[in-house]
Specification:
Layout lengths: L10 E4 L5 E3 L14 E10 L2 E2 L6 E2 L6 E3 L7 E11 L8 E11 L7 E5 L11 E6 L5 E5 L5 E6 L2 E6 L4 E8 L8 E8 L1
Parallel strand pairs: 1-8
Antiparallel strand pairs: 2-6, 3-4, 3-7, 5-6, 7-8, 9-10, 10-13, 11-14, 12-13, 14-15
Length: 191
């Protein structure tokens, strides 16, 4: 007897691509089968196109976690899950397929800023730098008070040029990518 599912489909959302999707609402019912159940992913389709199965896996534990390859772009995927019942002395091996709709959302990008000098305070006319790390997107920067400080960027390094006295909020932004959203952080620069 083929196992039955307690739902024909379920929608699960991954917080970020390359993570795990908890498909706990999608499970084989305990009724209707006598052999042990194993789960496998037999198909992944995005926008009507079949994608590679490599790296897509599903645990057979109670939590039913689907793991997604880190290279998987955000979007909506139709994942075919097969529940296979092991053969027993009283029942032949059988299976049932069902589809899980998995929505992968863009992840949260990290961004760490390190100022030099570390207190982001300089004496006119000496400037300094802010180095960005841990990000995926390209770096841009802006100064809220250009009469105090101006900025320029080169890769992950922001050069702060001092032009007057006071404070200025220097905002550093890592741009969005195909996998993560943009993120901004601010350093208060004092002169």
């Amino acid at each position: 007897t083929a196992p039955t599912f307690n739902a024909d489909s379920v929608t699960a959302t991954c917080i970020q691509s390359g993570g795990a999707v908890n498909a706990g609402a999608f499970d084989a019912a305990t009724a209707g089968h006598s052999g042990s159940i194993t789960y496998s992913i037999t198909g992944v389709v995005k926008d009507g196109t079949t994608t590679q199965l490599t790296g897509w896996n599903m645990t057979t534990t109670t939590s039913r976690i689907i793991t997604v390859p880190a290279s998987t772009k955000p979007g909506t995927y139709k994942v075919t899950v097969r529940a296979t019942e092991a053969q027993t002395t009283t029942d032949t091996s059988s299976y049932k397929d069902a589809v899980i709709t998995v929505t992968l959302s863009k992840g949260t990008q990290s961004l760490t800023l390190t100022s030099s000098p570390t207190n982001a305070s300089t004496t006119y006319p000496t400037g300094g730098t802010i180095t960005a790390s841990g990000h995926a997107g390209s770096i841009t920067a802006s100064s809220a008070t250009t009469s105090v400080a101006t900025v320029s960027t080169s890769g992950s390094k922001v050069t702060v040029s001092v032009v007057g006295y006071g404070t200025s909020e220097i905002t550093v932004t890592a741009a969005q990518t195909a996998y993560v959203n943009a993120v901004s952080k601010t350093v208060t620069w004092s002169v």
